[in-house]
From TrEMBL:
It catalyses: L-serine + acetyl-CoA = O-acetyl-L-serine + CoA. It holds the Pfam family Hexapep. Pathway: Amino-acid biosynthesis; L-cysteine biosynthesis; L-cysteine from L-serine: step 1/2. GO terms for biological process: cysteine biosynthetic process from serine. CDD domains: LbH_SAT. The keyword Transferase applies. It comes from Humibacter ginsenosidimutans. This is Serine acetyltransferase. InterPro entries: Hexapep, LbH_SAT, Ser_AcTrfase_N_sf, Ser_O-AcTrfase, Serine_acetyltransferase, Trimer_LpxA-like_sf. Belongs to the transferase hexapeptide repeat family. GO terms for molecular function: serine O-acetyltransferase activity.
Length: 195
């Protein structure tokens, strides 16, 4: 997939998730979440190249300055990742994010230990994390989990769970949603409804 086609895919994904989006041009020019993701992708490539770790970190810090979103270049992020609003999002070095994941503003995907190795969460495909939520440590959230706003998640959860509270407790969604079964007007899921 070329860089331009990946950018088009990101713009189309933003349009699907944000009912306020009016045009592709507006999304490309004004969505800080997309800018952070695009700069992350460059920094991540540098991070994987011998001798470019410091420039990768500098680029990620420049992206943080521009967007208010901090994504470590060592994180691994899948396709169609969307950060809505974005300000205050932090994604740690060993975080792994699957395809079709959405984060709202103020989300932290952080570590719980100071050691080396895997210390940040893994979010499988289709996870939605509400505003202000913290997902901490080497845990795994299964496909299509929804994390409620301001929840603090410190334990792994199976697919199709709803996680709310401090510390968050998992419960199954009322009816598991599969992407093929979701109507167009329900193509996003507002985690604020789980407060």
């Amino acid at each position: 997939m070329t860089v331009l086609s990946r950018m088009r895919e990101d713009i189309a994904n933003a349009r699907r998730h944000d009912p306020a989006a009016r045009s592709d041009l507006e999304i490309a020019l004004a969505y800080s979440g997309l800018h952070a993701i695009w700069l992350y992708r460059i920094a991540h490539r540098w991070w994987l190249s011998p001798g470019l770790k410091t420039p990768a970190r500098l680029l990620s810090q420049f992206a943080r300055f521009l967007t208010g979103i901090e994504i470590h270049p060592g994180a691994r992020i899948g396709r169609r990742f969307f950060i809505d609003h974005g300000m205050g999002v932090v994604i740690g070095e060993t975080a792994v994010i699957g395809d079709d994941v959405m984060l709202y503003h103020g989300v932290t995907l952080g570590g719980k230990s100071r050691g080396r190795g895997k210390r940040h969460p893994t979010l499988r495909a289709g996870v939605v994390v509400g505003a202000g939520a913290q997902v901490l440590g080497d845990i795994v959230l299964g496909e299509r989990c929804v994390v409620g706003a301001n929840a603090v998640v410190v334990k792994s959860a199976p697919a199709d769970s709803v996680l709310v509270g401090i510390p968050a407790h998992a419960r199954p969604q009322d009816a598991p949603r599969h992407h093929a079964q979701v109507r167009e007007d329900e193509a996003w899921l507002d985690p604020g409804i789980y407060i």
